[in-house]
Design goal:
The complex is a heterodimer.
Chain A lengths: L2 H29 L18 H6 L14 H28 L7 H13 L2 H15 L5 H26 L3 H9 L4 H30 L2 H4 L8 H9 L5 H42 L1
Helix pairs in contact in A: 1-11, 3-6, 3-8, 4-6, 5-6, 6-8, 7-8, 8-11
Chain B lengths: L1 H6 L8 H38 L3 E2 L4 E2 L5 H8 L1 H35 L3 H12 L6 H6 L1 H5 L4 H8 L14 H25 L3 H9 L4 H29 L3 H6 L7 H10 L3 H25 L2 H4 L1
Classes of the chains: A mainly alpha, B mainly alpha.
Chain lengths: 282, 303
């Protein structure tokens, strides 16, 4: 059979697939180094970092107005932070609840999961209608914030559920039967075991909220978040400063990912170190 | 566990097991209630509000809560709105098939042929990395790719394959389909790879020892065992594509109007009741799709 050809064939296909995934971003990155007189298309007239300087307002005068990112960036970061805290706490609590079988756990599970399934435009519309109805004005820290949690809490919940599923309950039971209080047991036994999961849940919540767009569109009110500021520029002509911005946000996200990786690594290193110490003491 | 308690003679003292069980259930409910309350207040209630407002009376600049079916009648008798339902379903079906066709071979390669755990992880990470770029940036990145002076046209012209730039690439249904396929195919690759990599190696070896060709192995073992992954992927892709509007708005040049785009434009002109009607229609479609998919696979078991 042609099984010998199959593997290289699929490997080549996977290579093409990665090109399909990365192609547009590579093109975007190349065009972000377009010269001052160039547009968002080929050819690149001269290589420069003009559009990066433009982003920070470091160019003198320009035919293109600056991207309105400053304040909305700060707002997005604060909002993502608030969302991360609340959804991670809710996620840990709910996953902890699901460790015992109880009546109605099925519907409860699906109610939580629904939060990541419901299209943003629908729940956003509903929230806007609801806030109009009860007379609450829309704001990023209010109507948009609660929807961000609706969206990210299911992710945090699923991550924690996966962690709890793999986690040996007897360790906790040993602690409880030795007379340690439930609160202490959670802090000293449960939490250190689930911490990598908590970190992943936080990373999920933060990046999803930071990038969230469709839920925010109808619920934001006057002060925009970063994705909405960016979306606003789509309706007019786009310039390479948008591409430069895209490259910078990608770099920022990677920094976040690396920090997460380092934290994970450091945490696991500390844990194995403490085990070694215990062995020596014994 | 409950049968144990019913079998017990009903005396004044409850058994320790039953007491413990009741205690655990109370604790579970306490832990769960804040999350459930949040979902009911900020997800279920808004969705009910959409249904309620779809029966409100729409005037030029406002809505009032006099109940009427006027918005529904207008929606269901308008060619534009019914067309949007058709477009939404067509785009959804094409993107769903496209993500499956594009993604399945990749999942097959990573899940079945890459034996080295590190390489496997690296490939999956490579698929996920674009997700750390903003969604809107990934959408807009297709403009310099597909435009008349974009990368593809430039390359094709330089190769001498075409003399005139291809104009159907951007601001057409084509660009929307390509953009959505690229953005959502990873949601297909992930679950399918997960299911394929879980297949026991010895099952495939046994089949091979018994003389099965790769075609047979694929058809009889790999494909059936990967089906839950396909369904989970299809659910992810479906809910995201059906609720889409940004890709169509940014890449179609207003040529593609999905239900999501209808909602956005109606809200923009303060036609809340019409937007609500479109919202309810969209909800019905999505519910139907998910219900259908969940008949095939129990999501909770697969997680």
């Amino acid at each position: 059979m042609n099984t010998n050809l199959l593997k290289p064939g699929l490997a080549a296909y996977t290579g093409l697939f990665l090109l399909f995934l990365y192609g547009p971003l590579i093109v975007l990155a190349i065009l972000s180094f377009q010269g001052p007189n160039g547009g968002p298309q080929f050819p690149v007239q001269e290589w420069s970092t003009y559009w990066y300087q433009h982003l920070f307002g470091a160019t003198d005068t320009s035919r293109v107005s600056q991207l309105p990112v400053g304040e909305s960036l700060l707002r997005s970061l604060v909002l993502a932070f608030m969302t991360t805290v609340v959804s991670t706490v809710l996620g840990v609590m709910s996953a902890e609840a699901f460790r015992v079988r109880f009546k109605g756990s099925g519907p409860a599970f699906y109610l939580i999961i629904l939060g990541m399934m419901v299209p943003g435009v629908l729940v956003g519309l509903g929230m806007a209608l609801l806030s109009n109805f009860i007379g609450v004005s829309r704001a990023w820290w209010g109507t948009a914030f609660v929807l961000h949690v609706v969206y990210t809490y299911p992710f945090a919940f699923l991550v924690m559920l996966a962690i709890f599923n793999r986690f040996d309950r007897t360790v906790e039971e040993a602690s409880l039967s030795l007379g340690v209080s439930p609160a202490q047991t959670f802090r000293r036994v449960t939490f250190p075991i689930i911490f990598p999961g908590v970190l992943s849940a936080m990373l999920f919540s933060f990046t999803l909220s930071y990038d969230e767009f469709s839920r925010t569109l109808f619920t934001i009110g006057r002060e925009l978040t970063l994705p909405l500021s960016i979306y606003g520029t789509f309706s007019v002509e786009i310039y390479p400063n948008l591409f430069a911005f895209g490259v910078l946000t990608t770099v920022f996200s990677f920094t976040l990912l690396v920090v997460y990786g380092l934290l994970m690594k450091r945490f696991t290193a500390v844990k194995s170190g403490s085990y070694k110490g215990q062995e020596e003491a014994a | 566990m409950t049968t144990v308690t019913t079998d017990m003679p009903d005396t004044t003292e409850t058994s320790p097991a039953a007491a413990r069980e009741a205690n655990e259930r109370r604790r579970a409910l306490m832990l769960l209630s804040p999350g459930l309350l949040w979902m009911i207040l900020f997800m279920v209630l808004p969705m009910l509000m959409v249904i309620y407002v779809s029966f409100w009376t729409q005037t030029t600049f406002a809505v009032n809560d006099t109940l009427t079916t006027a918005s529904w009648e207008r929606f269901l008798s308008s060619a534009t709105y019914l067309g949007a339902i058709g477009t939404t379903l067509r785009i959804w079906a094409i993107v769903l098939v496209a993500t499956l066709v594009v993604g399945y071979p990749v999942a097959l390669f990573i899940g079945l042929f890459v034996k080295n755990q590190t390489v496997q992880t690296a490939l999956l990470v490579a698929c996920v990395i674009p997700f750390w770029t903003s969604f809107l940036i990934r959408v807009i990145a297709w403009r310099p790719m597909l435009g008349t002076e974009g990368a593809i046209n430039t390359i094709l012209m330089n190769l001498g394959l075409i003399n005139e730039p291809l104009t159907f690439l951007l601001f057409s249904e084509f660009s929307v389909l390509v953009g959505m396929t690229q953005i959502y195919c990873v949601f297909m690759v992930g679950p399918i790879t997960f299911m394929i990599s879980r297949i026991d190696e010895s099952t495939i070896e046994a089949a091979r020892d018994l003389g099965a060709s790769f075609g047979t192995i694929f058809r009889r073992i790999v494909l059936p065992l990967s089906m839950p992954g396909v369904i989970v992927g299809a659910i992810f892709v479906s809910v995201m594509v059906l609720g889409e509007f940004a890709t169509a708005a940014s890449l179609s040049g207003r040529k593609v109007n999905l239900l999501g785009n209808i909602i956005v434009s109606q809200v923009g002109s303060l036609k809340w009741a019409f937007a609500a009607v479109a919202g309810v229609v969209l909800t019905i479609i999505i519910t139907a799709v998910i219900t259908l998919a969940l008949r095939v696979v129990d999501l909770r078991k697969e997680m």
